[in-house]
Amino acid sequence: MTTLKTIACLGVAASLLGVSACASKTRPPGDPNVCYQVQPLKNGALKYNKMPSNQKDLEHCAAALEAMRLKFLAMGGSQKMLVGAYQGNFIFLQPDGIFTAPTLESHRYLALVRTGDGRLALPGAMPQ
């Protein structure tokens, strides 16, 4: 009897994993060379605010978002973290660096690190 219960539990667990794997994921726009600042709305939706100029790569988009974040901080803002999007990838500006992921729910990968004076650099470009 315990073998049947075990098999039934394993079947339920496998079906739950299958359903969670198919859950919809939040993906950003994939427009070429367009950098967005992403603003979460109260209803859970995301608003994509187009940055004023085209960016040639993810690093330049992240730098433009960082410049915007610093400008708002200088004007009295308090938002230390920011989310952006570039060519189908989310960009997460955080105190410990800039991370990227293809969806909001995906694992985030380090794209740029902060130097000792707060500038951005490619990982491995700075001496340890």
Number of DSSP E strands: 7
**Largest sheet strand order:** 2-1-3-4-5-6-7
Task: Please state the CA-atom Rg, rounded to the nearest Å.
Answer: 20 Å
Helix content range of the residues, please? 25-40%
Total individual domains: 1
Principal-axis shape equals globular
Residues in β-strands, percent: 25-35%
Provide a count of the helices: 2
Q: N-to-C terminal Cα separation, in Å?
A: 59 Å
Helices and strands: which structural class? alpha+beta
Low-confidence stretches: 1-20
Average residue-wise pLDDT: 82
Largest sheet: 7 strands, antiparallel
Order of helices and strands: HEEHEEEEE
Q: What do these coordinates show?
A:
The protein has helices spanning 2-21, 58-74; strands at residues 35-40, 46-50, 82-86, 89-94, 97-101, 109-114, 120-121. It is of the alpha+beta class. It has one domain (26-121). Strand 5 (97-101) and strand 6 (109-114) form a beta hairpin. Mean pLDDT is 82; it is low at 1-20.
Concise description?
The chain has two helices and seven strands; from the N terminus they run αββαβββββ. With 128 residues, it is α+β, with helices and mostly antiparallel strands.
Descriptive keywords:
seven-stranded antiparallel beta sheet; alpha+beta; 29% helix; disordered N terminus
What's the SSE blueprint?
Blueprint lengths: L1 H20 L13 E6 L5 E5 L7 H17 L7 E5 L2 E6 L2 E5 L7 E6 L5 E2 L7
Antiparallel strand pairs: 1-2, 1-3, 3-4, 4-5, 5-6, 6-7
